[in-house]
Amino acid sequence: MYRVRRGMDKGEWIPALLREKLEQNWEDSKWKDKAAVNKRNRRSSNGPLHTCGSIPTIEHSKRLKTDSNMTPSCWEVYLKTHKMKGDPSKWVSSKSQMVADEYERRIFERNSQQTEGDDVSNDHQSDNFIFLDVVGGVDKKGRIYGLGTEAGKYKPSSSRSSDGISPSEYEHMRTAISKMSAENMELKERLKTNEELIRASQEESRLAREQAQQSQEDSRLLREQFQKLMESFTQDHSHLPPYQPHRSS
C-alpha cells in the first residue's frame, strides 16, 4: 500500500472501487494528521518498535502456535517480533533489550528458587505474569508493550484484577507454596522413616518371640525323650533278680 500511496505502484491489482476509497482516505485531513503523528513517533523512538514488517503480530502468533501446537507465551511472541532479522543476537531497540534483560533475570531468579519435585505445570502461565509485570502490565489504553494486536490474549483476567494480585505477588505466593510443599515432603519422608523403624522393631520382637517359643518347644521335646528313655531303661531291667551282696565264708 505504501508503494501505491507514493505512486510507485499504480495499484492495478486493487479493485477500482476499493482503490478509489483508499485514495479518498489518504487525502482526508484526519488520516494525514494521524500519519504525521505516527511519523514523528517513529523518528523520536530509539529505533524501530518491532520487526513484524507487514505481517501483523497475530499472524506471527498463529505461526508459532502451528509450529509448536501450543499457544505461544508472551515471551515467545516478543522474541519473534523484537529480534533483528539479520542478526538474531541483537534487539530492535535499547528498550526491547532492557525488557529482555529484566525478564530473563526474573525467570532465572524464579527458577533458582524452585526445588526438586516442584510442580512446573503452570510455568508457562507464570512466565506470562512475569513478562506482564516487567513491561508494566496493561496501559491506560488497554495495550501491553511488545504484544501488538495480541495483547488481548494475555491481559490478566477480571477475577485476578479484582483480587488485586500482581504478577510479582503471585510469584511470591507461588514461591511460598513451593517452600511449604518441600517442607511437607521432608516431613513425609521423616514419618516414613519412623514408620520403617517401628516396623523393623516389631519384626525383631516377633522373631525374638518365635525363637523363645521354639526354645521352649525344643526343651519340651527333650524332656519327653528323656522320660521315654528312662521308662524304656526301667522296663528292660525289671526281670533281673534283686541284687544280693556277696558274703564271705
Give an overview in words.
The protein has ten helices and no strands. With 249 residues, the protein is an all-alpha fold. The protein folds into two domains: 44 residues, no CATH class; 173 residues, no CATH class. The longest helix is centred in the last third of the chain and has 70 residues. It starts with a helix and ends in a 13-residue tail after the last helix. About 3% of the residues have low confidence.
What's the total helix number? 10
The rounded Rg comes to 44 Å
Give the mean pLDDT: 75
What does the largest sheet look like? none
- Unreliable runs: 158-164
Q: Kindly name the structural category.
A: mainly alpha
Question: Structurally, how many domains make up the residues?
Answer: 2
Percentage of residues assigned to helices? 55-70%
Order of helices and strands: HHHHHHHHHH
Please tell me what the overall shape is: rod-shaped
Which band does the percent of strand residues land in?
under 5%
* Strands, total number: 0
Give the N-terminus to C-terminus distance in angstroms: 161 Å
What is the fold's blueprint, element by element?
Blueprint: H1 2-5, H2 16-27, H3 29-44, H4 57-68, H5 74-82, H6 94-113, H7 123-134, H8 151-154, H9 158-163, H10 167-236
Would you kindly provide a brief summary of this structure?
The protein has 249 residues and is mostly helical. It is 66% helix and 0% strand.
Index terms:
mainly alpha; single chain; 249 residues
